[in-house]
Structure formats: C-alpha cells, structure tokens
Amino acid sequence: MVRAVGLDIVETKRIAQLLAQHDQRFIDRVLGRDEQALLTERVDRAQFVAGRFAAKEAIIKALADVLDERPPYRQIQVVKDATGKPVTQFDEPLARRLNAYRFLVSIS
To answer: Taking 70 as the threshold, does the pLDDT of residue 1 lie above it?
Structure first.
C-alpha cells in the first residue's frame, strides 16, 4: 500500500551556482557522509548534488504527515545498493521513527 508520494524537481544550474558560491559549506549542509564519499567519484558534481537534493525534498514532502519538524538534509541519505539502485538511509533518531516505512526513490 502506498501511503504517500513526494516529488521534486531541481534546476541543476541553480545547484551549480550554489556550489560555485559555497562549495564545501553547501555540500556539508545537503549531503551525508556516505553521499559525500560518492561525490568524490563524480565529475558531474552539480548534477549529482541536484539529484540528491531533489530526492530528499521529495522524501520530506512524502513524510509531511509523519514528521513533527523538517529534518536536516544530511540526516537523509540517498546511496546505492549492490545493484546501483538508489536507496534511502536515515541517521538516528530519524531511522528509528521511520523503520516501518519503505521508500522507493528514482532520480532523473
């Protein structure tokens, strides 16, 4: 059963501008540790960060009825499983609150 759907679109050009202005400070605010490790392997940095940012916004929108307050972006991570499929990871205590939920993520 689907309980909620979240959708978000981010303009890559906007993220590229934020990276140019704030670089590591912006990355630290938006990406978790595992995502930052994935970013080091990428040449398309703005596209990667834009995709993660949009996925996190979509997750937060889908969880609007469940969460009391908006979590920091870095507490939500979108990483790859063994097959390369994007999957979500949550930092504690958010993970404990969301362990009953299943998330399906698509990044375009």
So the answer is: no
